[in-house]
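Hi R.,

As promised on Friday, here is the backbone we talked about, encoded as structure tokens. Could you run it through your design pipeline when you get a chance and send me back a sequence?
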């Protein structure tokens, strides 16, 4: 083993380990920052969807309370005038449906029998006790109620308000149901989020008799769910698979590649006002920017690390050879000449030698001087 070879190798290996370790730590820190950014994106997506659902519930209930308190509505409902109620409110309902996504509007008797569906006037007289717990509770407690439910015409966000006759006696309830479809479309327009609504197929087949059977076909079946609404059905097919939706009791987050992009996905369970599971909402946003930043960072870190290793290795070689190995080689040759008894020549450029080698230079000069004095004599 020689110092000339082993020392540079050892120092360069130390540089490689230290620089690579620093690069690894930096990449981990940057990846952690990226994870934090994506976590914020997940939280924002979830907050947007949950806020939109709460807002829809409040709007549905506000409309239901406004209409149920109209004197003409109270009078016609108390008189059992179904035709009159439909004539009075059908234009209003058409406008709400066209502009505000109101999909269902229904009067219920206190006996929990459907009195009038403005969205389907020909369907009435059915008992709602078994599959409309929100209506049951609103009539039993005689207080406003709101929440998600699966009704005869499909899932919606409902607000249910009590209706009193002109004398102030409770005679039933009136509900407004806001459709999920326009709500999801509005969220995509406003925030660039793709969404899909998945409803338990068993609930739809049991309670949603008024839903178009084509919507329950195999093309929309995802495990035990039916994809009832979607802003981009093909994209959501790749992002929300049956195994993803199998058990969603609380918000679930993950990142998945779809259509050439990394997409963040949040799955949010939909429950009725009483906690009964109804389905899942899937929300997705493009995460490719943050993932591309990570890739670019890794590439640049690799390039910088490689350049740093090359520069430091070159610096080590220059320093060792120029400031240590070269002076040692010169001194070694001169002292070898001393031992061999050959003529001794002066060492030039010793002012550039390290201070630690100057005593050796001085010693060599003394030996050379003593040897040359007898020769002169």
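Update: got your reply. Pasting your designed sequence below so it's all in one thread:
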């Amino acid at each position: 083993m020689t110092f000339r070879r082993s020392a540079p190798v050892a120092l360069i290996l130390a540089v490689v380990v230290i620089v690579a370790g620093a690069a690894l730590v930096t990449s981990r820190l940057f990846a952690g920052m990226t994870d934090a950014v994506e976590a914020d994106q997940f939280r924002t997506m979830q907050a947007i969807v949950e806020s939109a659902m709460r807002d829809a519930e409040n709007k549905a209930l506000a409309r239901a309370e406004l209409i149920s308190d109209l004197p003409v509505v109270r009078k016609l409902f108390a008189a059992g005038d179904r035709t009159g109620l439909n004539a009075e409110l059908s234009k209003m309902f058409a406008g709400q449906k066209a502009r505000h996504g109101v999909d269902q509007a229904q009067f219920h008797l206190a006996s929990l029998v459907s009195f009038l569906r403005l969205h389907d006037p020909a369907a009435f007289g059915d008992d709602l006790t078994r599959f409309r717990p929100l209506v049951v509770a609103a009539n039993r407690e005689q207080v406003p109620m709101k929440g998600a439910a699966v009704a005869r015409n499909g899932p919606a966000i409902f607000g249910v308000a009590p209706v009193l006759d002109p004398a102030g006696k409770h005679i039933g309830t009136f509900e407004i149901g806001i459709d999920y479809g326009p709500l999801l479309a509005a969220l995509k327009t406003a925030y660039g989020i793709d969404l899909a609504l998945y409803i338990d197929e068993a609930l739809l087949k049991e309670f949603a008799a008024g839903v178009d059977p084509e919507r329950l076909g195999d093309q929309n079946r995802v495990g035990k769910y039916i994809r009832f609404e979607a802003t981009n059905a093909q994209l959501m097919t790749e992002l929300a698979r049956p195994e993803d939706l199998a058990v969603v009791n609380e918000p679930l987050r993950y990142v998945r590649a779809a259509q050439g992009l990394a997409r963040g996905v949040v799955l949010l369970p939909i429950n009725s006002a009483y906690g009964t599971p109804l389905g899942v909402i899937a929300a997705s946003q493009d995460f490719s920017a943050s993932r591309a930043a990570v890739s670019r960072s890794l590439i640049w870190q690799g390039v910088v690390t490689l350049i740093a290793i090359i520069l430091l290795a070159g610096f080590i070689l220059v320093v060792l050879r120029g400031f240590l190995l070269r002076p040692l080689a010169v001194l070694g040759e001169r002292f070898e000449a001393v031992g061999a008894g050959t003529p001794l020549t002066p060492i030039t450029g010793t002012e550039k030698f390290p201070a630690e080698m100057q005593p050796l230079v001085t010693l060599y000069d003394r030996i050379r001087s003593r040897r040359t004095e007898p020769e002169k004599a």
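One thing I noticed while checking it: DSSP finds ten helices and eleven strands in the chain.

Thanks again,
M.
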